[in-house]
Amino acid sequence: MVNKISISINSRIYTVVANEDPEYLKSLCDYVNEKVNLVLSEGNHVMGEKPLLLAALNICDEYFKLLDKSEPAEKLSDLLTENKRLEAEIRDMKKAEQESGSKAEAVADELDITKKVLEETEEKVKFLEGQIKLKETQIKKQRSEFAIREKELLDMLESK
Question: What is the number of structural domains in the chain?
């Protein structure tokens, strides 16, 4: 909403058209008048537009000094905060890396042990498979011998 108001600066009337609230514009006008009155109270009979120009320079000086003070402090604060966050993140990552390294070593050790157990188990399985074949051969041989003896016994019983 566009506002049109009349303001008085250094006893001169100006019409201001702006989107700002009329009360805000009046407070700006009051501030400028304070600065003009300060220039007039300090000056050597300053006349015409000079008080307005000097007041504007003083206001700009205040503004730039505030910018110089606030920006570096804010930037420094932001940088310090970011620095602390990054340091904490680095500590967390180093800790996680150490834990991962320890876990990886433990898993590698466990894997080596498991491989050895597996190799030993495979050797036992081969040995036992050999034993099974040997026993199966012995059983076949004994069955064969049993069958022969059984036949001999039957033949002997029949012949008597």
Answer: 1
